[in-house]
Amino acid sequence: MHRVIVTRPAREAAHWVVQLQAQGVDAAALPLIAIGPCTDPAAQQTLALVQQQLDQYRALMFVSGNAVVHFFEQNQPLALIHKALAAIKIRAWAPGPGTARALAAAGFAPERIDGPAPDAPQFDSESLWQQVAPQIQPGDRVLIVRGRSGGVHDNAIGTGREWLARQIAAAGGQVEFVAVYERCAPPLNAAEVALAQQATQDGSIWLLSSSEAVANLVQALPMAQWGAARALATHPRIAQAAREAGFGIVRECRPALEDVVASIESGA
C-alpha cells in the first residue's frame, strides 16, 4: 500500500496520521497550512462584540474545528460564553463531523449542533444547508466564524461559505462574518522538503483537504514536476486545484476516515 502524505494543519494532521496508522495505512504528516490566532485588532474587536451579543443570533456557523477552538479561546472568559450559550437557544452549524466534535468538546449540547446528513455525498456548506434551511426566518441573524488568509479575509467568490451566505440572504436572513484565526504557509525544513520532493515521484498519495494547501505546496517546491504525483482530494474544488497544479492522478472522496481508507486501499 502506498504511503499517504497528510497535509492538514499540524494538530489535525497528527490526528489523521494516528487514525490512518491504526487502519494499517503508512502515513506521514506534512502540514501545508499553519494556524494561529487572529492578530488583526479590528477582527478582535468584532469578536469581543459578538461574544457579548450571542443572544441576537439564530445560529453560529463554524467553518472548521479551528474556528471553534479559536472562537472559544480569545477575548471573553470561557465561563461567560458558556453561561450565555446555556441561557439561549442558539444553534451551532458544522460543515462536517470534525467541526461537530470540536463543538461538542467546547460545550455545545449535541442536540443543538447541526451538520450534513451522515450519508451526505460531501461534508460541506451545500450539504449543511440542506439540513438547516428550515431554521431561517426573515430577519434571523447568522454569524459565520472563519479564518483569514494572508492577512486578509478569505472572501473568494465561489467558496462554500460565500455560497451559504447567499442562501441565507435569499431566505431573508442576515449574515455576518468574524475571523478568529489566521492561516499562512508554514516554512518547510530540510527534512520536510526532502519528503515532499520524494513524494512527487515515489507513488505516495497526497491527501489534500484544502485548495490553499495545494497552492502552498506548489509555492514551496517551485521546480517540482507533478505529473507523476498522486492526490486524493476531499472535495471537488480541491481536486480541481490539484489538477490545475499538475498532479498526474487525482481522485476524490469524502473527508471521512472510512472513505479515505477505502479510496487508498482501492489504489488511489
Order of helices and strands: EHEEHEHHEHEHEEHEHEHEHEH
N-end to C-end Cα span? 10 Å
Helix fraction by DSSP (H/I, runs of at least 4): 40-55%
Low-confidence stretches: 151-158
Rg (CA only): 19 Å
Secondary-structure class: alpha/beta
Q: Into which percentage range does the β-strand content fall? A: 15-25%
User: How many E strands?
Assistant: 12
Short description:
With 268 residues, the chain is α/β, with parallel strands linked by helices. Helices cover 41% and strands 20% of the residues. Strands 3, 4, 5, 6, 7, 8 and 9 form a 7-stranded mixed β-sheet that branches. It has a 5-stranded parallel β-sheet with strand order 2-1-10-11-12, with helices on both faces.
Produce the secondary structure layout:
Blueprint: E1 4-6, H1 10-22, E2 27-29, E3 34-37, H2 41-51, E4 59-62, H3 65-73, H4 78-87, E5 91-93, H5 97-106, E6 113-114, H6 125-132, E7 141-149, E8 152-153, H7 160-170, E9 174-184, H8 190-199, E10 205-208, H9 211-220, E11 230-233, H10 236-245, E12 249-252, H11 257-265
Parallel strand pairs: 1-2, 1-10, 4-5, 4-7, 5-6, 7-9, 10-11, 11-12
Antiparallel strand pairs: 3-9, 7-8
Helix pairs in contact: 3-5, 9-10
Features:
globular; 268 residues; 41% helix; alpha/beta; 12 strands; 11 helices; 5-stranded parallel sheet; 7-stranded mixed sheet
